[in-house]
Write a structure and sequence with these properties.
Elements (H helix, E strand, L loop, with lengths): L2 E4 L5 H10 L1 H5 L7 H5 L1 H13 L4 E6 L5 E11 L2 E8 L8 H16 L4 E7 L3 H9 L3 E8 L2 E9 L10 H9 L9
Parallel strand pairs: 4-5
Antiparallel strand pairs: 1-2, 2-3, 3-4, 5-7, 6-7
């Protein structure tokens, strides 16, 4: 498996290559980032690092043996013990369990290093692969949403009791006190 690393300035070139190489692939299942994202990538990368430094987001890259980025797994909108989970896996690395592994790896980081107790996620209805990853990793469907005009589902994962069934009343209560909408995966 690749190594999960917290985003840092040195990842910029490999991350840009990852996003460019997989743009069409990603756009088939998640909202496209748009041309401005690529035109202003360096500025955006610096802004992400500043958000991370402030503790409002944690961005991770999955780095392969050659230093290439094979995926990203991010926690955004960190507040009140919760965060939104988003992930993207390169087309050439998809279908091998990498997303499932990475999401599970992030649970320990989220709970132990970042002090989080609950994760929120969303996926469009036509993104069966992401919905399967969320289900396999213990997320429960808690509602419906629109992601860039596309119908989707919202999910919740309680990190305080990993053996409890997902979507327990306590977890649902925490969900309702947080921002109910989730933004598209990062």
């Amino acid at each position: 498996m690749p190594e999960m690393q917290l985003l840092r300035p040195g990842h910029a070139a490999a991350l840009l290559a990852f996003e460019q190489e997989n743009r069409t692939y990603f756009a088939a299942s998640v909202p496209d980032r748009g041309d401005d994202y690529f035109a202003r990538f360096d500025e955006r990368h610096r802004a992400l690092l500043a958000e991370q430094e402030a503790g409002v987001c944690y961005f991770h890259v999955l780095v392969g043996a050659e230093g290439e980025v094979l995926g990203r797994v991010n926690l955004t909108d960190v507040a009140d013990g919760g965060a939104d989970l988003g992930y993207r896996i390169a087309e050439r690395a998809a279908g091998r369990g990498l997303a499932t592994w990475a999401v599970r790896e992030l649970f320990d980081l989220a709970a132990c290093s970042y002090g989080l107790t609950v994760l929120r996620a969303a996926a469009t209805l036509d993104n069966a692969a992401s919905r399967a990853v969320l289900t396999r990793t213990g997320f429960a469907v808690v509602g419906e949403t629109q992601l860039s005009g596309r119908p989707g589902l919202t999910y919740l994962r309680d990190l305080t009791n990993p053996t409890a069934p997902p979507g327990t009343p306590a977890a649902r209560s925490r969900w309702s006190t947080m921002a109910e909408g989730t933004r598209p995966p990062s």
